[in-house]
Amino acid sequence: MGPQHPSTHGVLRLVLEIDGETVVRVKPEIGYLHTGIEKTCEAKFYQQVVPLTDRIDYLCPMTNNLCYCLAVEKLLGLEIPPKAQWMRVLMNELTRINSHLVWLGTHAMDLGAMTVFLYCFREREDVLRFFEMVSGQRMMTSYFRIGGLALEPPLGFFEKVKKFADRFPGNVDEYEGLLTGNPIFKMRTKGVARLTAEDAIAMGACGPTLRGSGVDMDLRRDAPYTGYENFKFKVPVRSEGDVFARYLCRVEELRESIGMVQQALGGMPEGPIKADAPKVVLPDREKMKTQMEALIYHFKIITEGFAVPAGEVYQAVESPRGEMGYYIVSDGTAKPYRVHMRGPSFANLQALGKMCEGGLIADVVAAIGSIDIVLGDVDR
Amino acid sequence: MPLVPAITDIEQLKTHPALARLVEWSVGAGSKSTVQAVKYDRDELTIWIAKESIREACSILRDSADCPFNYLADLTCVDWYPSEPRFEVVYHLLSIPTKERVRLKVRLDGSSPAIESVTSVWPAANFYEREVFDLFGVRFTGHPNLERIMMPDDWEGHPLRKDYPVEGYR
C-alpha cells in the first residue's frame, strides 16, 4: 500500500501481510521525504535553522518554530517578554486548529464524507490568512524567532481573530453534526484499530493517539512552557482507544483551543515582542538605519551569528500530533553541534502496526487517518 | 532564567528519583561503576551509564515503583569526532505518572560502535535504534530488525557522522 495511495497523506508505504481480508502484519517503509534537515542544521547559524523547522511538520510550522526557539532560549538563558509569550500561545493554538482542520477534513474524506472536507478548508483558509497577516506567509511562517517574534502583529489583527473565535464553535458544531452521530461514520470508526493504554505507552504513541487510549498526558498542562500555566483548559481523554475515541479527542481539542485563543485575546499584555538581548535579537529596522550601535549588532548577527554557551537541552512541546521534542547540543560556537527532532508522527507510526493487526484492510485507512500522520515529520 | 553552573556531584543530586534508583541498584548488584557521571544543567538531569549495563539500567528505571520511567521519549546519538570515545547514544526517558524526565547517555568507541538494544524494554525503541544505525552506524545487538530506515538500503556511509560532508560525497 502506497507510497502513492491517496489515504497515506504523503508518501508512506505500508507492506501489508494479509490473510484474505485480514491484516496479519504491517511494516511501514519510510524515508521518501528524508531531506537530512538534522545534518543541514549543523552547517547553519542558530537563527538560520528557524526556517528549516517550518518544513519538518508542515501542518504546524509555528509549533516547530516554538519548540526550536524555546530550546535555544533555554540554552542561552534568555527571558522572553510577556507579550511575545502570549502571542506565541495565541499563534500556537491557531496552528493547532489549522492542523486539526486538515486532519478532520482528510480523515472524513478517507472514510467517504466529502462535505466535511470543504467546510474544514473554509475555516482553515481564515486561519491561514491570520498567518499571512502576521508573518507574510501562509504555511512556512518562521514567525517565532530566537528571543521573541519576527514582527509586531498588524493593526486590526486581534479584531479579526476575535471575530473568527466567536464564530468558530458554531463551525465545530457543524462538523460534529455531520460526523459524530452519523451511523456510517460510526460504523467505520467505532471499535476499529483499537490500542490499549499499555500498548500505547510501550509503543511510544503520543498526543491524541495516547489520550484516545485513556492516558491523561498533555505537556501544555504537565510541563507548561511559554506561559501555558496562565491558561485554563481541559485535556480531553477517552478510554475506548479506537478511531472514534481519537476523533472525539481531537474535536474536543478544537473547542479547547478556541477557548485558549479567546483567553489570549482577552489578556494580551502590552510591551515589547523581543527580548532585550542585542547580541542575539536583531534590532528594529528603524534603529538599524539610524543608530551605529544597532547597525554593528545587526551586521555581527547576520555575518557571524551568535555564540551559544556549551550545553544541551531537550525541549518538548505539545504539537497537534503529540510530543514534539528538540534535542540541541551546543559546543559554544555560533552553529549548533547537533540538532535532533523527535517527531510525534514518527512515534505514532510505530503504534500503527499494533492497531491494524487483526483488523480488515479497509480499516487500515481509518487507522492511518486517526494517527494524523505527517510524513515530513516522520522522515525529516 | 539566568544560567547557573552545572552540578556534577552525585551526592548533591541523589534526591532525583532516577539517580537514587540507579545508585541503589548498582550498589546492590555490586557493580559500582554503572553510574559513570552525572550532570544537572538547565533543569535537566543527565546520567552517564556504563555500556554493559544500559539495558538493565533501563528496565530498572522502567519498573521503579515510585517513579516508573515507562515512556521512551527519544533515542538519538551524538558524534564527537575526532575525539574518543566518539559516539554518545542519548536516551530521553519520561515518567508518565510523575512527569519526571531524565537523560541517559552511553559513550561508545569509534572503531566498531555497538550497544545492547533496549527494544525488549520499550518496543518504541525499534524505529529510533534503526534511525541511529542508519545515520550513525551504531549497531544495536539484539534488535529484531536492524535495517536502514531513512536512507536507501544500498546507501554507503552514515550521513550524520561528522566526517560525512554536508553536501554528500561527490
Can you walk me through this structure?
- The complex is a heterodimer of chains A (380) and B (170).
- Chain A has helices spanning 37-41, 50-54, 61-76, 82-110, 114-135, 157-179, 183-189, 197-202, 208-211, 219-222, 243-266, 285-290, 292-304, 344-356, 361-370, 375-379; strands spanning 13-19, 22-29, 144-145, 148-149, 311-319, 322-330, 338-342.
- Chain A has a three-stranded antiparallel sheet with strand order 5-6-7. In chain A, strands 1-2 form a two-stranded antiparallel sheet. A two-stranded antiparallel sheet of chain A has the order 3-4.
- The model of chain A has no long low-confidence stretch (mean pLDDT 88).
- With 380 residues, chain A is mainly alpha-helical.
- The radius of gyration of chain A is 21 Å and the shape is globular.
- Helices cover 51% and strands 11% of the residues of chain A.
- Chain A is built from 16 helices and seven strands.
- Chain A has one domain (6-379): Cytochrome-c3 Hydrogenase, chain B.
- Chain B has a domain at 11-112: 2-Layer Sandwich (Beta Polymerase, domain 2), CATH 3.30.460.
- In chain B, 19% of the residues lie in helices and 26% in strands.
- In chain B, the strands form two sheets. Chain B has a five-stranded mixed sheet, covered by helices on one side. Chain B has a two-stranded parallel ribbon with strand order 6-7.
- Chain B has helices spanning 17-28, 54-62, 125-136; strands at 35-41, 44-49, 71-79, 87-94, 101-108, 114-116, 139-141.
- Chain B is of the alpha/beta class and 170 residues long.
